[in-house]
Amino acid sequence: MTLRFVDFRDLTAEQRADAARVLRDAFAHMPDAFDGEFDAEVDGFFDDEDREAFAAFSGETLLGWIGRIETYDHAWELHPLVVDPACQRRGIGAALVAELEARVKADGVLTLYLGTDDDFGGTSLAGVDLFPNVAGHIAGVRESSRGHPFAFYQKLGYEIVGLIPDANGRGKPDIWMAKRL
Ligand SMILES: CC(C)(COP(=O)(O)OP(=O)(O)OC[C@H]1O[C@@H](n2cnc3c(N)ncnc32)[C@H](O)[C@@H]1OP(=O)(O)O)[C@@H](O)C(=O)NCCC(=O)NCCS
């Protein structure tokens, strides 16, 4: 599939609405994601100068998008990444990440990092009390039968660098991952 990347600032109003729809559909398994404010999340990439995003198109169809946030001087956050559920597992997510990595590396970024929540029982960390010795739980993290994107990021070279216990409620941690560019 030939993908075309389009910066958010070049999207039409209709395509901007498509980006919000894809965000909503991709997170349908996490009802509390973005507090249901999908348009507002997209708008943030127009209103906040620390944020940039671009979308992947096949022809005129928006298939997914990715954003980044300038946080530290040399380590930026990947947030968010979504692929239309109808088009997942076709390499689009990996292509978006590769394009983002190339772009931020050119900006002098050394480390790209992200948080990937498990508030739906997607990993072996679900329901586990991670205190004490939180870091000790990192080595044993596995996907559950429900699947979880941390395994996708591992394939792309990201490693788990931290866990935030109970970030989304008791037994629902956030998993922090990072990659040297
Ligand atoms: C996670 C997501 C972006 C992946 O996008 P995608 O286009 O389906 O992924 P790709 O097809 O590029 O996958 C690349 C590789 O990762 C693997 N992969 C994809 N999702 C995976 C998962 N959940 N678990 C394990 N491996 C996965 C693919 O099989 C592929 O492996 P291969 O190269 O050996 O064939 C997509 O599933 C999505 O939008 N999910 C919902 C939103 C979300 O969770 N975003 C991330 C939040 S941090």
Per-chain topology:
Layout: E1 4-7, H1 13-26, H2 38-47, E2 51-58, E3 61-69, E4 75-83, H3 92-106, E5 111-117, H4 149-155, E6 159-164, E7 174-180
Helix pairs in contact: 1-2
The structure holds coenzyme A (COA).
The site of coenzyme A has 21 residues, from strand 4, helix 3, strand 5 and helix 4.
How would you describe this structure to a colleague?
The chain has 181 residues and is α+β, with helices and mostly antiparallel strands. It folds into two domains: 1-109, Gcn5-related N-acetyltransferase (GNAT) (Aminopeptidase, 3-Layer(aba) Sandwich); 114-181, 3-Layer(aba) Sandwich (Aminopeptidase), CATH 3.40.630. Helices cover 25% and strands 28% of the residues. The chain has helices at 13-26, 38-47, 92-106, 149-155, and strands at 4-7, 51-58, 61-69, 75-83, 111-117, 159-164, 174-180. It has a seven-stranded mixed β-sheet, with helices on both faces. The longest helix has 15 residues, at 92-106. The protein is globular, with a radius of gyration of 16 Å. The model has no long low-confidence stretch (mean pLDDT 97). Coenzyme A binds at residues 26-27, 81-83, 88-94, 114, 116, 143, 147-149, 151-152, 155.
